[in-house]
Each structure stands twice: as structure tokens, then as C-alpha cells.
Specification:
The protein is of the alpha+beta class. The protein is built from two helices and ten strands; from the N terminus they run H-E-H-E-E-E-E-E-E-E-E-E. The protein has a five-stranded mixed beta sheet with strand order 1-7-9-5-3, with no helix packed on it. Strands 4-2-10-6-8 form a five-stranded mixed beta sheet, with no helix packed on it. The chain starts with a helix and ends in a 30-residue tail after the last strand.
């Protein structure tokens, strides 16, 4: 009798474990749409697009409309770089190709590799913001003390919803070579980056 009860108890345990596995499997699938919703609301994780030069030439510029783009940069604590956009804000016409640059300086005496991860706010604008050239497409390597200006060429799609007048493009830079944050070596001069362009605006015709 006890053996029979033990078998029944084991079957119940196996059944419950099976339900847990199924539930976890379903939760894994549910994370994908939940993550997409999160990105849509926050604009995080670079939901911007990439288009070819041919697609750019085929497009039309909407000169009756203006959109303001703000540029932001931040650095992960493990990456010993100084990063900043050379232009903070710019006004563009949807459909027009616009080029700006970010600057980066390696503040150590060693070669460091980094990767930029973009995000766009508001999230609804993400699929209407396309890049033809971007430093975020590949990893960037800076030699000891090296300063580099990294171009970004983008287009705001004319199909951007009419109620969106401003977007903010942010890049977070992460260290990719597995090293630790190295302080500047003794004797390495800290040279300031290009003059702060905060508040600068460029009109694109």
C-alpha cells in the first residue's frame, strides 16, 4: 500500500515539474514581445534602421517640415574614454541626408576597443530614423591617448508621425576588449576635446 502511494506521489511530482517546464518555455517566448514593447516605449537598445545609398537617392526631401535631433553620449564605467557629440542639437528636413560627428579620446596609455550602442527617444520614432554610416556599425579601436572624430550620417524618414517634432539619439559606449578601467599613465597629458558645442544648432536645407 505504501509503495502504491509512493508511486502516485512521484507521478504527481513529475506532473508538476512538467508544468513548470512548459510554463518556463512559454515565458521565454513571451519575453520577446514584452521586450519589443519595452523598446517601443523607451526607445532603448537601438531600434533604429540602416539603409543603403541607393535607397537614399530614391527618397524625397520634405522641405515643408522640420525635426530637431538632439545628440547624447555616455560611457560605461569600464571604458576609459571621453565621448561627446560635436553638435548637441540640429534641425533637419525629413528625407535629407545629415552628417554629424562624435569625438572620442582614449585616456589611457594602452590600446582600448569600444562599441557604441544606440537608443532613440521617443520609441515610436525609431523605425523612422535610418543611418547610412555610423561608428556604431563596428567596434572602434583607440591607440594610447588617441583622439578620433567619428562620423554619423542619418536620415529622418518623411513618414515620421506628424506629432513628433523632436527626437533624442543617445549612444552608450562599452568596452569590448575585456580589459579593466585603466587610469591615465603617468606623464600622459590630458588634452581637452574639441570646444563644447552645447546649444549649437545647424539648419539643413
Amino acid at each position: 500500500m505504501e509503495q502504491q502511494e509512493l508511486k502516485q506521489a512521484n507521478r504527481r511530482i513529475v506532473g508538476r515539474l512538467g508544468l513548470v517546464v512548459v510554463a518556463m518555455f512559454g515565458f521565454g517566448f513571451a519575453l520577446v514581445p514584452l521586450y519589443d514593447v519595452f523598446c517601443e516605449v523607451t526607445g532603448l537598445n537601438g531600434k533604429t534602421g540602416r539603409i543603403s545609398a541607393e535607397e537614399v537617392l530614391a527618397g524625397q526631401v520634405d522641405e515643408t517640415r522640420e525635426v530637431t535631433v538632439e545628440f547624447v553620449a555616455s560611457v560605461n564605467s569600464d571604458l576609459p574614454w571621453e565621448i561627446k557629440p560635436l553638435v548637441r542639437r540640429i534641425t533637419v528636413h525629413p528625407g535629407a541626408v545629415t552628417e554629424v560627428s562624435y569625438s572620442a579620446r582614449n585616456m589611457t596609455g594602452k590600446t582600448v576597443i569600444g562599441q557604441a550602442v544606440p537608443s532613440l527617444v521617443p520609441g515610436v520614432a525609431s523605425k523612422y530614423f535610418n543611418k547610412t554610416e555610423c561608428f556604431c556599425f563596428t567596434q572602434q579601436s583607440l591607440e594610447p591617448g588617441e583622439y578620433k572624430e567619428m562620423p554619423l550620417r542619418f536620415i529622418v524618414d518623411p513618414e515620421l508621425p506628424e506629432d513628433v517634432h523632436e527626437v533624442a539619439l543617445s549612444y552608450t559606449f562599452f568596452r569590448m576588449d575585456g580589459g579593466k578601467d585603466n587610469r591615465p599613465d603617468d606623464g600622459l597629458e590630458r588634452i581637452s576635446l574639441a570646444p563644447d558645442a552645447a546649444g549649437a544648432a545647424v539648419q539643413v536645407n
